[in-house]
């Protein structure tokens, strides 16, 4: 019989591990998935009992918490660079915001002007008031609704009903523990809520069946999926419905930045946070996992959780894991302080430029959308531009060209004062029928929260997935007692996963 290597024994002894009654849970990623997982683990299990204690360690490769919830600073103001809006029915986001004493930033009046650009002309345009009067806001809202109705007809109502049907199913994820099982796979979770079918077909197929007109699908719906997911109506139906929900009324955000949610969740969950520490390998050694980091550190963990999409990270797994091959959709977010040239859009004056210019699915359009974030004065504004490819300086100079002949001759032809570029590995490249990675990657204690992200990517879906994974962990790990046994009801639904562990 082969003797265990002496070096390996020494290694096992010295790698960072606390006493044996402490169960170390290691989470990779400090975004909403990782931070809300820590929160739910603490919420659903005692911090310590006489026999056991769980310590939670979060690794984050960046120097800030939040992942795709992050702000950029331009002209001294902070703007959302990633996840910017939250739906009024996102119960966890709302609950976190309230319980963490954060303030909700009220949604804008809704009267912001939208224009649909096809590269040569505006196909459709709404109007916005040029005053701060709430009465005028309401009148413009009504007028814009009539404009939408005139162009797209009653198909708009069918679109709203489609979103409502999806939302009704999604709300099942907030049901009590008695009704809601612990789910072992994404498929089970979606099937239970009545959402799985939406992931098997494209949004376009779903909407045609729901009776939407081709014009509404190719214009307004396309605009929304491009703005929210950088993709066309060929994304899967559920992601599409979530995207459409993100264009409705009552949307909100957190005063001072949405990234405060993960930051405060981590702060309040008794977590050890290792910032700027990237995990490079995860190896199963007997009953635990050894995590190695770029800092040359090794950590021994009883439970390891991946809370980031695995598609673009460099983590080596031993033994290897197998998940469906996927890719991320990249969105290039470019922030510019300057002044858009109305001439680029065939307009005469800056005042005529709509607050949101969104585009339809036409090849070679260089940007997906341009929105005004802040107006400092009539000739000084901050804009956010989304595009599928990086925006070159030459194009930005054309978009922000100064309409002044003297300055043009003097070669000071761009109004750009500040430009910030972010290349996001933004969300999954959704493709129906969706194939999901498992929540449990190895049949032991290696979990993957972002397996759920291929259903839909949002702050709330991250929290919903984390809540289920927290219950799954507590139901499967013998040493972790739950505060309330009903939390772990319906073990049967975890099915075969439990047997692997016993
Ligand atoms: C431009 C953009 C706009 C969006 N708009 C919205 C919106 O308006 N509303 C909405 O609800 N959602 C929106 N989303 C989606 C939303 O941001 C994401 O679904 C959500 O934030 C994902 O959170 P997460 O925790 O799963 O992943 P992430 O936020 O990506 O967190 C993962 C973290 O893990 C870290 N990490 C990765 N690998 C390692 C490693 N090896 N070691 C250590 N750390 C590692 C990363 O640095 C990252 O911080 C948007 C996304 C983008 C990009």
UniProtKB/TrEMBL annotation:
Signal peptide: 1-20
Keywords: FAD, Flavoprotein, Glycoprotein, Oxidoreductase, Signal
One example GO MF annotation: prenylcysteine oxidase activity
Gene Ontology process terms (BP): prenylated protein catabolic process; prenylcysteine catabolic process
Residues in Prenylcysteine lyase domain copies: 138-477
Cofactor needs: FAD
Similarity-based family: Belongs to the prenylcysteine oxidase family.
Name of this chain's protein: Prenylcysteine lyase domain-containing protein
Protein source organism: Stephania cephalantha
């Amino acid at each position: 019989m082969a003797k265990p290597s002496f070096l390996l024994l020494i290694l096992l002894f010295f790698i960072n591990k606390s006493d044996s009654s402490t169960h170390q849970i290691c989470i990779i990623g400090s975004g909403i998935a990782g931070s809300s997982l820590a929160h739910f683990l603490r919420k659903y299990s005692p911090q310590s009992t006489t026999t056991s204690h769980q310590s939670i360690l979060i690794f984050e490769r960046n120097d800030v918490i939040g992942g795709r919830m992050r702000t950029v600073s331009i002209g001294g103001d902070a703007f959302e660079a990633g996840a910017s809006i939250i739906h009024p029915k996102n119960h966890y986001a709302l609950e976190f915001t309230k319980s963490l004493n954060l303030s909700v930033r009220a949604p804008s009046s809704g009267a912001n002007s939208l224009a649909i650009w096809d590269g040569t002309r505006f196909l459709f345009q709404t109007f916005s008031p040029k005053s701060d009067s709430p009465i005028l806001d309401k009148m413009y809202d009504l007028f814009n609704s009539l404009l939408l109705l005139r162009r797209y007809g009653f198909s708009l109502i069918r679109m709203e009903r489609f979103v409502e049907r999806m939302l009704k199913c999604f709300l099942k994820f907030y049901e009590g523990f008695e009704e809601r099982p612990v789910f072992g796979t994404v498929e089970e979770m979606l099937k239970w809520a009545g959402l799985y079918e939406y992931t098997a077909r494209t949004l376009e197929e779903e909407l045609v069946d729901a009776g939407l007109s081709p014009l509404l699908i190719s214009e307004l719906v396309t605009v929304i999926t491009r703005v929210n997911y950088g993709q066309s109506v060929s994304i899967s139906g559920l992601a599409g419905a979530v995207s459409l929900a993100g264009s409705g009324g009552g949307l909100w955000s957190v005063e001072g930045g949405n990234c405060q949610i993960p930051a405060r969740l981590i702060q309040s969950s008794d977590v050890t946070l290792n910032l700027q520490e990237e995990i490079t390998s995860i190896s199963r050694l007997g009953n635990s996992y050894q995590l190695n980091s770029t800092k040359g550190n090794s950590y021994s963990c009883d439970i390891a959780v991946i809370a980031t999409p695995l598609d673009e990270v460099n983590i080596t797994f031993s033994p290897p894991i197998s998940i469906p091959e996927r890719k991320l959709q990249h969105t290039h977010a470019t922030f510019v302080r300057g002044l858009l040239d109305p001439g680029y859009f065939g307009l005469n004056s800056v005042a005529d430029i709509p607050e949101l210019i969104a585009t339809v699915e036409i090849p070679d359009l260089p940007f997906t959308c341009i929105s005004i974030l802040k107006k400092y004065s009539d000739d000084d504004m901050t804009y956010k531009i989304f595009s599928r490819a990086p925006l070159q300086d030459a194009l930005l100079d054309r978009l922000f060209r100064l309409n002044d002949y003297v300055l043009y001759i003097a070669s000071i032809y761009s109004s750009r004062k500040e430009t910030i570029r972010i290349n996001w590995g933004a969300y999954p490249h959704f493709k129906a029928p969706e194939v999901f990675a498992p929540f449990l990657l190895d049949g032991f204690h290696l979990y993957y929260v972002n397996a759920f992200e291929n259903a839909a990517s949002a702050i709330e879906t991250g929290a919903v997935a984390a809540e289920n994974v927290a219950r799954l962990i507590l139901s499967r790990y013998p040493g972790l007692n739950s505060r309330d046994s009903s939390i772990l009801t319906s073990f049967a639904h975890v099915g075969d996963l439990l047997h692997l562990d016993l």
